[in-house]
Amino acid sequence: MSNFPNGSEEISLLEFISKYQYLKSKDTKYFFSTQKYYKKRISNLVSKKYLRRIKSNLILDELGIEFAELFGFEYNKLNRNKKYLPRLLYISELAAFYNKCHNVKFTPSFDMKDKEEYTITSRKYIGVLEINGMEYLTYYFTENHNDKYLRLILYDIQKEKKYKNIIILTNDVNRIKTSDFTFGMNQVLIINDTEENREKLKYIHSIDWYKIIKELFYKRCNIYLADYNFCEYTDYKNKYINTFYFFDTEKINRIKYFLKENKDKNADIVCNRQLKEMLIKELPNCNYNIIDLEQYIEREPFYYA
Questions:
Q1: Do 292 and 272 form a contact (C-beta atoms < 8 A)?
Q2: Which residues partner with 129 through β-bridges?
Q3: Which of 173, 195, 150, 144 has the alpha carbon at shortest distance from 305?
Q4: Is pLDDT of 304 > 50?
Q5: pLDDT (tens digit, 9 = 90+) per residue, 129-147?
Q6: Distance between CA atoms of 63 and 53, rounded to whole angstroms?
């Protein structure tokens, strides 16, 4: 039994790699509750031939494959197509990040049975992020993707019928033209793909907006949840308030249309200071209310260092 994986965390790691094929070595930290010895535990699994290193990535070795088959893990044979590798690595990285998160579930594109035939050849989404029960069809692109790839994402979203909430993760936000990314969806969130923003995504539905709005506006006027589609709160007189946690092109488009049709009106926006720098380029004349949103979030326990 000394050759057997040591405990549920190591077994969970093997099960993950069985499904996702690859795992970046730096992402193994998400599978262990203590960070003190986990690198040594990975080296031990490599020496026992459960895992094998390929550059900075881990894959199943011969005993790892036998173990996966013995325990009936979902197993995907290693794809060695170099052209497809960056996509596989990104999907694995995102899934690993949310591996122990209780309110976020990530379903990779290859597990979306109803769209299976399109996953590699046509559709560009990488999966679905379900956050507190709300599903977001998820895409990504980097500076290494050309303009043709970006156009394919646009076309992909245009023909989407099932999902009405979209997340686009990118490290190249300057290539996003807001007017191109409006489709009549509920939300299209353009998110700078950093570890900080991935962490923030966990709490997109955990912000106490009611408390924020009350503190900002209730002393000045009575504010209500709005029946309009271009704002979230209003006094039904001259206050039209929208809240932003991430850059939402659909919401921006709705506000723009309202202001264009109502020259004598203006809108209030509640967001943090960083997001204001992005929004003000699109909505320069709005009234900005800057809030430290992190102070109004109920967070889940943090499971890894």
A1: yes
A2: 106, 136
A3: 195
A4: no
A5: 999 999 999 999 999 999 9
A6: 14
Distance CA 123, CA 118 (A): 5
Nearest Cα to Cα of residue 101 among 293, 245, 302? 302
Distance CA(152)–CA(141), nearest Å, equals 11
Across the chain, what does the average pLDDT equal?
91
* Contact assessment for residue 304 and residue 33, using Cβ atoms and an 8 Å cutoff: yes
Q: Count other C-beta atoms under 10 Å from residue 262's C-beta.
A: 12
pLDDT of residue 284: 97
Query: Tell me, what amino acid is at 156?
Result: D
Structure tokens at 28: 């193994």
The whole-model pTM stands at 0.92
Amino acid occupying residue 64: G
- Taken in order 57, 60, 63, 68, the sign of the CA dihedral is positive
**8-42: per-residue pLDDT in tens?**
999 999 999 999 999 999 999 999 987 777 889 99
Three state DSSP letters for 149-161: HHHHHHHHHHCCC
Rounded Cα–Cα distance for residues 176 and 189 (Å): 11
pLDDT reading at 6 higher than 80: no
Q: In what order do the strands lie in the sheet with 104-108?
A: 104-108, 127-131, 134-141, 165-170, 187-192, 247-248
Q: How many CB atoms lie within 10 A of CB 290?
A: 13
Q: Which two tokens stand for residue 3?
A: 């050759």
